[in-house]
Amino acid sequence: MWNKDNIKVSIKAKKAVIYQKKHGKACTGTELTLNLHCKHYKFILNMVNKEALDTLQKYGIHPSVQRIAIMDYLLKNHTHPTVDEVYVALCKVIPTLSKTTVYNTLRLFSDHGAALMLTIDEKKVCFDGVIVPHAHFMCKRCGKLFDVALPESLKDFLPAGSDFKVDEAHVYYKGVCKACAMEA
Ligand SMILES: [Zn+2]
Ligand SMILES: [Zn+2]
């Protein structure tokens, strides 16, 4: 079980890397302690023990600083963000973050069932922190992605007695949203 001390250790290790990059030398204990007051540390620590951490634990994902921050973003932003959107939002508070890390982390969440990877738009892959089964509607004009309740008739995708074990199912609709239809 992961607790606050595990997270603190992980954050300290991350801070040491940032310090070394910035100052070109490894930090001593005192410098690290002083450095902990920075925005980045406070930002992450504020989130510890909250929903993001609980979610990672629930799905058996080791909670590193970056993973907590990315899960926190997904849970607070039900906007079906892309890798770029998550990266732009978080790179200011986590200077060591890279787009590759964001992509790998979101893929990891998806593989563990902690988030959904949506491929409705072939030009951009989106991620969803809402894992309750629901369908998606993509507007072909503005490109926005909307959540749609799954019709009762589609809740059972496979006939009873099927040999397949379903881990995830996706229902995508494409068309024109209300706002775009009114503009036409
Ligand atoms: Zn639209
Ligand atoms: Zn959704």
Describe the structure.
It is a single chain. By secondary structure, the chain is mostly helical. It folds into 2 domains: 36-128, Winged helix-like DNA-binding domain superfamily/Winged helix DNA-binding domain (Arc Repressor Mutant, subunit A, Orthogonal Bundle); 135-154 and 168-183, no CATH class. It has helices at 4-23, 29-35, 39-47, 51-58, 65-76, 83-90, 99-111, 178-183, and strands at 116-118, 126-128, 135-139, 145-148, 172-175. Helix 5 packs across helix 7. It binds zinc ion (ZN) (2 copies). The site of one zinc ion has 7 residues, from helix 8. It is found in: Cytoplasm. This is Ferric uptake regulation protein.
Instruction: Compute the number of structural domains.
Output: 2
The radius of gyration over CA amounts to: 20 Å
Low-confidence stretches: 30-38
**Beta-strand content bin:** 5-15%
Topology:
Blueprint: H1 4-23, H2 29-35, H3 39-47, H4 51-58, H5 65-76, H6 83-90, H7 99-111, E1 116-118, E2 126-128, E3 135-139, E4 145-148, E5 172-175, H8 178-183
Parallel strand pairs: 3-5
Antiparallel strand pairs: 1-2, 3-4
Bound molecules: zinc ion (2 copies).
